[in-house]
Amino acid sequence: MPIIGIHQECERTGDSSKCHVMYYELMLCVIPTLEQTTCLGGLILPVKREVIPAHNNPKRRPWWAWWPLLLGLGLLASPPRLYAADLNEPIKPLPEVSYDPGKVALGKRLFHEPRLSRDNTIACASCHALDQGGVDRLRVSKGVGGAEGGMNAPTVFNSGLNFRQFWDGRAGSLEEQADGPVHAAPEMASSWPEAMTKLKQDPEYQRAFTALYPTGMTPQTMKDAIATYERSLVTPSRFDKYLRGEATAITAEEKQGYELFKSYGCIACHQGTNVGGNMFQYFGVMGNYFQDRGNITEADYGRYNVTKKEQDRFMFKVPSLRNVALTPPYFHDGAAKTLEEAVAVMAKYQLGRTMPEQDRSVIIQFLRSLTGEQLEATTSNKSAHK
Questions:
Q1: Which of 61, 141, 172, 181 has the fewest Cβ atoms surrounding its Cβ within 10 A?
Q2: Which among 113, 175, 187, 376 is annotated as catalytic?
Q3: Residue 361 CB: number of other CB atoms within 10 A?
Q4: Is 187 a catalytic residue?
Q5: pTM of the predicted model as reported, rounded to 2 decimal places
């Protein structure tokens, strides 16, 4: 059964600090208490306890997985073996979207426009290549003059479904997100006025903006067009067909992987329409990932860099798992080179479990079913021509 609630208590004893981690392996739980939890049907199960070393900062009392996990599964979880035809899965199918085709076309051109950058070499598509799963497959992206950024580029596909943008959630919308790369020195190192000066010399851009926007070309209309295009980049998958009741859309192994994905507790953070992207979570719930990895950087502080609240240190937006098979390397630091490695790291540091290779393999088969069918076909064609 999945873990739906985690609570940590830390106590100082001499020169050491230990944390008592209590977690509930329960289904459809109503109100957990410290010693027992009541679930639907009157089931009472005891708490499991573990003692682990506390994280480096003894002042922090992480609330990481308490309300996010409870909220996520309390609202969305379903019992094992309850299949999608019942329309009650914690993962929801992608919605059908429709946007102004003129704005989508203009936004697509801007998305691939290197003149947005200072030296006319970097476009949005440079770091979010549509033929590579919407990423650049680098540990960290490279901008003007070969400058390196501080984090791994997330996919642009289905990004309109994220509740906030960037790993640290500093942008509340795709329009706001577009400001970041244009102005960031390691990325485009430019500004909207500078980019507009160049693009206004292009008659095609002038005609397109005049036709679509009463105000013509402005920073706001440029961002609106780019964001509209990005919102159109949804990628329906075979798993979406399964969620809509097409039982044969995924294989028996992929169904088994989905059941394991739920029973291990991965579903606690990766649920909803985007299979993630709708909450923040602490990286290292059941182990100190950053201490074990070493070489902690400012980028590793995550949400803390935005809020300056100690409880947000090492907190990140949970990434969407749609098209995850196409977007290595993984995590904000790009440390996991393969999907197999990423799943193993998540099992260890987020679930506190060692996952057998067979279980990991089957879960990865499920994750591959989340690849958009159009992207799946493109990838297959590329492989066939190598």
A1: 172
A2: 187
A3: 14
A4: yes
A5: 0.78
